[in-house]
Amino acid sequence: MADPPVCCRPCATCLLCLYSCQWITAKKEKRRGLKTTKCDCSWFLFLFCVFVFTLVWLYFAIIILNDFHNFNEFIFKQRKLWLDWSLVLLIATATLITYSTVLLVLALCLQLCGQPLKLHWLHKTLLILTALVVAAAFTGLGIKWAEEWRSARISLQATGPFLHIGIVGGMTLLAWPLASFIYRTCNTGLKVFLLLVYCTAMIMLYLAPLGITSPCIMEENQLPPKPALVGHRGAPMLAPENTLMSLHKAVDCDVQVFETDVMVSADGVPFLMHDEELTRTTNVQAVFPERAALNSTAFNWTDLQQLDAGSWFLERRPFPTAQSLSAGDRYQVTKQRIPSLEEALEAAKQSNISIMFDLRPENHSDYQSFVNATLEVILRSGIPLQQVLWLPDRFREQVKQQAPSVQQVYGRKRLQNEKEPLLHVNLPYQDMSSEEIRQYRQDNISVNLYVVNQPWLFSVLWCSGVSSVTTNACQVLKEMKHPIWLLPSSTYLMIWIVVDCTSLLAILWAFLLLK
């Protein structure tokens, strides 16, 4: 057996200093007879597990960015504090993954250089803290945001083939320090155990593509039409949400539907507003400080018209795009007021787009009067009723009788033995599988899924055949002329074979070269 590779003394000393926090030369170490003990091996295994654990959390953090604006709104509702928490998430996650990665690389280099793995107690403490922080993050995600687990499953349809290639590559590189360790250790049982674990893991990885499914593995000619875009409260990345400016920006993004939320003022005027309180999207605290905590429906229309519904967008910057507005757009933002439903319907009619809305709050004692007031405005507006998409479930039958041409959109899946077939459904994107989307499409049921902001998610839903998506990022999705990736099954099979064969040859080379 050849001697293990030995680094130059300065390199070994530097690696030991960073990993063990001790300035000991390789020569002194040999004289002292320091060796990697079972305890040191256990800490290396713990380091590897923390690295994988943190890497998985990084993947989740990237995936949940699609829905993070909802989290920002939730925190504001609870604490009245606005901050783009996605930046905090990404900075913290990047710090943790960088630290664990650097430690792991140091350990692997030390192993290749034939040096002992003496992890310093400070690194041990920080590794335990890293593991606890990531575990707490996963626990919080499971308790408060459980639907993101379904988002992660959907994301694997977009990233599965590439994750497979990346993991195979990483495990292949791991063959070098593993081979070095196996040839140097005298413990036969440990050798057999490590080889069995490694070989089992690689075999599973080589066969993993058999279980990878993605709607984007298809022939080019099978790709469904691009989903239509529904502007979520307009174009909220380009203008204050639920304002006429937001509607017009959405029209510029070629959206086909303006999605909004309607409330009814104390004197019976329907207006656009999402939150039950006015504090997030208006200056109500400055104009009516003693009434700021009241429900939006407690204000009459005259009071609502006094509020600035735009300046908050420049002050809080709910999306990074708010920083890049032109001077003209910034001026226009400051002039925005809360629009009435009548104004929104007129703008939709002039722009020839549809309007879809929820009527809030559904638990209000005067909800039926809200429905009546809203219907009255719709019928008086002169907008073609086919351009109105009605979401509220309560008093739906009344709406069908008074305005039969209004399109009824349901926030649920179809039921068995449905008396009246559904024509339009509006659901969270996590609630429908690719198979269900295809089946609804075959049955001529229009499926709109919300809220879809990231190109990877839009690509998966496009390949699945969804009819439309509600989005905050209409300016981004508008520019997509094709899914991010589309692979014929034959091409994917060829890539799978090439990757696995290349990996196998590299592993054999590592073991033969270091023998």
UniProtKB/TrEMBL annotation:
Protein name listed in UniProt: GDPD2 inositolphosphodiesterase
Transmembrane segments: 41-65, 85-113, 125-143, 163-183, 192-212, 493-514
Compartment(s) where it occurs, according to its Swiss-Prot or TrEMBL record: Membrane
Pfam families: GDPD
Family from the record: Belongs to the glycerophosphoryl diester phosphodiesterase family.
A GO cellular component annotation in the UniProt record: plasma membrane
Keywords attached to this entry: Glycoprotein, Hydrolase, Membrane, Transmembrane, Transmembrane helix
Top-rank taxon, per record: Eukaryota
Principal subcellular localisation of the protein: membrane
Gene3D superfamilies noted in UniProt: Phosphatidylinositol (PI) phosphodiesterase
Membrane topology field: Multi-pass membrane protein
InterPro entries: GP_PDE_dom, PLC-like_Pdiesterase_TIM-brl
Transmembrane helix in keyword set: yes
Species: Burhinus bistriatus
UniProt-listed PROSITE patterns: GP_PDE (PS51704)
Keyword Cell membrane: no
Positions of the GP-PDE domain: 227-481
The gene coding this protein: Gdpd2
Any one GO molecular function term: glycerophosphodiester phosphodiesterase activity
GO BP of this protein: lipid metabolic process
